[in-house]
Write a structure and sequence with these properties.
26 strands, single chain, alpha/beta, FAD/NAD(P)-binding domain, 2 domains, 377 residues, 27% strand
């Protein structure tokens, strides 16, 4: 029996427009599976690429340049697109309930719905801070912040809570953008509760020098415990004055997953095996930030979702055909490139490699633009 005959009449349902799923759609667009019905459910028609978010906030990329058009990509893959939210998963019946009232049956399901911000650990954060994820929500709030900042009495002191790579990138971006937009001096503070995981000592030294050069105040190993309209209170009792606070820490699983009987990790994220199948359901896969590979946990970062995408695409195809699936062990090391907002970047990989300069920024720009061109099908 041909592979296409095995998938004829079957339905592949993709819930969420995350990085892994755009790569799945690209794979099916380039190599279609005749007779297969594919449906993508996404709240938005455009999905942002997280790797270019700091560049967009710094003013380097336009809003269009950092978004992937899911409608066009779905069309290229021969997939249907439903603009809606999943509000319920019925594992036994293999059905997904949507906010709009529809229920979709599937043969194979894949879930890539990202994370939701968890600001509960910082008093006042919900009322007085901008959560960096999900990116779509951040961009609307960012536009309002920019509008107020260019006014004569707008915010001039900005605090970034989160000392990881995302927080560092954000601090450089905020400093670059508002310095260019506002004629009076601005203040940017970076607050981190611990040293950034995955950034080795050589990179950390270069980052510290660049933060100093860009006049970004650093409050290291001192967690934010309270945010109010005047700034951020730290665990040490110190107070960091701020007119606007952005938080890039504390991710939580989307609330819709809580009611499912799928296997989860101790934090409530979907628990997957090396095939990216949910541990107690061979018809359901999960990827990106909403899932944890139990044997090989990795940080909640876009680079890992991007790496999972091609593997997920191959395993979805194999599962639909009834073929054996491949195991995936994610790399521990990956190339990390942090733009410093001045036409330069700091790069590193593994335990020792570190470099910086204008060529590092060019490399990041080339990699990001090349990634986005993949979806211009």
């Amino acid at each position: 029996m041909s592979s296409s005959a095995k998938t004829t009449g079957k339905h592949l349902l993709l819930v969420g427009g995350g990085h892994a799923h755009v790569l799945v759609l690209e794979a099916f667009a380039r190599n279609p599976e005749p007779g297969l019905t594919i449906t993508l459910v996404s709240k938005d028609r455009l999905t942002p690429y997280s790797g270019m978010l700091p560049g967009h906030l710094a003013g380097t990329y336009t809003r269009d340049e950092i978004h992937i058009d899911l409608e066009r990509l779905a069309r290229a893959a021969g997939a249907g697109l439903i603009l809606d939210d999943a509000v319920g998963f019925d594992r036994a019946a293999r059905r997904v309930r949507l906010k709009g009232g529809k229920a979709l049956a599937y043969d194979i399901l894949s879930v890539d719905i990202g994370i939701t911000p968890d600001l509960s650990g910082i008093a006042g954060a919900q009322e007085h801070a901008l959560a960096v994820k999900p990116i779509g929500s951040l961009l609307q709030k960012w536009d309002r912040l920019v509008e107020s900042a260019v006014a004569p009495n707008g915010p001039r002191r900005f605090a970034i809570v989160g000392g990881g790579a995302a927080g560092i990138c954000l601090a450089f971006a905020v400093q670059a953008f508002f310095t260019a937009q506002v004629s009076v001096p601005i203040e940017v503070s970076l607050i981190g509760s611990s040293e950034a995981p995955g950034i080795h000592a050589g990179m950390r030294r270069r980052i510290a020098q660049a933060l100093k050069r860009r006049r970004i105040a650093v409050h290291a190993e001192d967690a934010a415990v309270r945010i109010d309209q005047n700034g951020v209170t730290l665990a040490s009792g110190r107070f960091v004055p701020a007119d606007a606070v952005l938080v890039s820490t504390h991710a939580a699983p989307p609330p819709v997953l809580a009611a499912t009987d799928w296997a989860k990790d101790e934090s409530g994220f979907l628990a997957t095996g090396p095939t990216l199948q949910i541990l107690n359901d061979e018809t359901a896969f999960a990827a990106g930030d909403c899932a944890t590979m139990i044997a090989h946990p990795r940080p909640k970062a876009g680079v890992f979702a991007v790496r999972q995408g091609p593997v997920l695409a191959r395993n979805l195809r194999r599962a639909l055909r009834g073929e054996p699936l491949e195991n995936y062990i994610p790399q521990r090391d990956h190339l990390l490139l942090i733009a410093t907002g001045d036409g330069r970047a700091i790069g590193g990989r593994g335990r020792f490699l570190a470099f910086e300069g204008r060529l590092a920024w060019r490399l990041k720009d080339v990699i990001d633009r090349r990634f986005m061109r993949r979806f211009e099908l």
